[in-house]
Amino acid sequence: EVQLVESGGGSVQSGGSLRLSCDVFGYAFSTISLGWFRQAPGKEREGVATIDNRGDTDYGDSVKGRFTVPKDPAKNTLFLTMNRLTPEDTAMYYCAANKDYIRSSWGLRHPTFYAYWGQGTQVTVSS
User: Fold this and answer.
1) Would you write out the chain's pLDDT as a tens digit for each of its 127 residues?
2) Angle at 34 between CA 71 and CA 41, to 5 degrees
């Protein structure tokens, strides 16, 4: 069974950076489709970044140019590097995965297609 464990959240001032990690267990990392999503209190879940098993990526409009999703296949880890953070980035961040191919652009806007989710890690950005 696929298990996802996020880490790296915390508090940072506006303009700062953070790197989140998602460790993937129980499935071949090279063939899995992955994504990062976030949800702030009172708001809907939002697609942050997705990467499919072909290596194609897509990013939410609000994070383009600031966030990236590098991978470390040797460690079965997906990262979310976040730069120039603003208070609007404050949310619980979740890693998601699916064994089947999900085109990155599709997955970003359809989180329900991801079958596996981590427990989340909180990111708080103060002004």
Assistant:
1) 999 999 999 999 999 999 999 999 999 888 999 999 999 999 999 999 999 999 999 999 999 999 999 999 999 999 999 999 999 999 999 999 999 888 999 899 999 999 999 999 999 999 9
2) 110
Give me the phi and psi of 45, to 5 degrees please: -65, 140
Q: Which residues of 42-74 are buried (b: 16+ CB within 10 A; e: fewer)?
A: eeeebbbbbbbbeeebbbbeebeeebbbebeee
In this structure, what token pair is assigned to residue 36?
């990062």
What distance in Å separates the CA atoms of residue 90 and residue 86, rounded to the nearest whole number? 8
Neighbours of 26 (CB within 10 A): 13
